[in-house]
Amino acid sequence: MYAERLAREGFAALVFDAACQGESEGEPRGMENPFQRAEDVRSAVTYLTTRDDIDPDRIGALGICASGGYVPYAAQTDHRIRGVATVSAVDMGSVIREGLGRTQDPAILTGMLDRAAAARTAEARGAAPELVAWIPDNAEELMRTATGQFRETFEYYRTPRGHHPRAVQGWVLRSVDQLAQYDSYAMIRLISPRPLLMIAGSEAESAYFSREAIEQAAEPRELVVIDGATHIDLYDKDEHVTPAVAKLTEFFGRHLAG
Question: Are strands 196-201 and 83-87 parallel, antiparallel or unpaired?
């Protein structure tokens, strides 16, 4: 949705599937390696620099949800990215280590890392990679145990609203040990003096990621809060996406034009 809206505003917009996911190559399918995800962003920038219809000095990057962590992470050290924006940003490393809202029992991470280690050993001995669902198939189970944001996530990804047949609804288990050592925003100050814009919903349980990242970043930086929007609302609800796109259009137009 965001790429289509920005394209209508005159931007050339590239959307791509991460390695090991969607239509992109890579094995095992469903691998969520945050360092590879950042490399995917850099590779996309490299591809754009080869196109005759793209000015290599006017490339910006937008990340949504987990990519709102991966894009700034890549941009910290890739100076070809001249402007960085996020919507509903999430640091997946923090989510794995501490849970959303940082309320997770530390024993949960210990258990997940034990399982990831066992999965690596099993794969080395010939077992197929183990895929674990990050959104339960059972709506009743989710509604009983999950936070509001994860309920919204189910309603988006497990229904026709956001489901795609090539979307893997889980991760390879050994993704966990890679995610656990990853920090999206540890060096976010390195984006400066390039501009940073982060957009979050006022009702989003994930909004603290954007607030804290902006506090750590150096100027020029800007946090925009969309009133009344939750994390998932900013994916596709027109009343919230429209003001977000308007701000993105102004931001990229101001910093990438001429």
Answer: parallel
